[in-house]
Structures are given as C-alpha cells and as structure tokens.
Design goal:
elongated, single chain, alpha+beta, two-stranded antiparallel sheet, binds iron/sulfur cluster, 16% strand, 3 helices, two-stranded antiparallel ribbon, Alpha-Beta Plaits
Amino acid sequence: MGMISSESGPGTTFMGVNREKIPWWPTIDLNRCDGCNGEYDCIKFCPHRVYRPRENPPRVDVENRYNCVVFCQACKKMCPKDAIFFPLKADILNLIKTERAK
Ligand code: SF4
Ligand code: SF4
C-alpha cells in the first residue's frame, strides 16, 4: 500500500461502477500549456499523480488517467493558460447510468 490514499484509481469504483469504465480525466492542450515555465502548477496542485512533467520544452502529460477523481476539475480552474479540458459531466453521468443498468 502506498503512503497516499486515494479515493480513485484503477480497481476502485465510483457510484458502483468500475473506475476503468468511466472516461473522466483531463486532456491537455499542448499548444497552450507552457509547463508554467517549469513550475508545473497542476502537478504540484493535484495529489493524485495523474500528470507527468515533460522537459525541453516544459509540458504536461496525463500518465495515470484513472487516478483522476471523477467530476473533479480543480486543476482546470487554476491553470493560468486555460490548457486543461474535461468531458461534459452530463455525458459521463449518462454513461454511468447505462453501466449501472447493465
Ligand atoms: S497548470 Fe496549465 S500551463 Fe501549467 S503545467 Fe499545468 S496545464 Fe500546463
Ligand atoms: S481534476 Fe482533480 S483529481 Fe483530476 S487531475 Fe485535476 S486536480 Fe487532479
């Protein structure tokens, strides 16, 4: 077990649905992201190890998509370049309902 507990990630469930069946994670517009000039604000901000830094030039990749907490968008709000995007919550809710009905 890791030191950091997480309510998300592979092997967990959300609303009774396997996390890996829920396509909720951030997408980075690499034309907008500048890695916060090497400061990587989103990586420092999020405790769930979703992101991985890239260097030369500094950018951010999504490495552990299922670690992202379903319906969290906290990092999007603090990105100074408006480079972080998420799916529509209504679409994902519908998908979850469909999975639950199976
Ligand atoms: S906060 Fe925005 S600009 Fe900064 S590293 Fe993350 S995605 Fe890139
Ligand atoms: S949405 Fe929340 S959990 Fe997902 S990467 Fe951003 S801050 Fe982390």
